[in-house]
Amino acid sequence: MLQGFVWLLAFQFAGEVLSRLFALPIPGNVIGMALLLVALALGLVKEAAIREAAELLLRYLALFFVPAGVGVMLYFDLIGREWLPIVVGTLVSTFVVMAVTGWVEQWLGAKK
Predict the structure, then answer these.
(1) Number of domains making up the chain
(2) Which domain does 55 fall in, by range?
(3) Per-residue pLDDT tens digits for 61-97
């Protein structure tokens, strides 16, 4: 499991370095996970090496949302004033994600 955490943290660190080095508007952890995806696809990192650590993190994923939930509670007055753009943005982005996911699935299914 320790090896899995080392891999995950190494890719997160690499993503953070790239994000800051090139002043990218993408968070470093997102870049790191994209790098990990590429490394897994190319066989540079074996899935078994990170499986146990990833399953542990996924098992407790809900706990990672607690700080964000507490942070939202600090801004109830702002959310109350700006509820309409928040609701519209949430609905529009949800439908866009669903549509793009469906199109990608159809595209990948057609390639088989």
Answers:
(1) 2
(2) 1-59
(3) 999 888 888 888 888 899 999 999 999 999 999 999 9
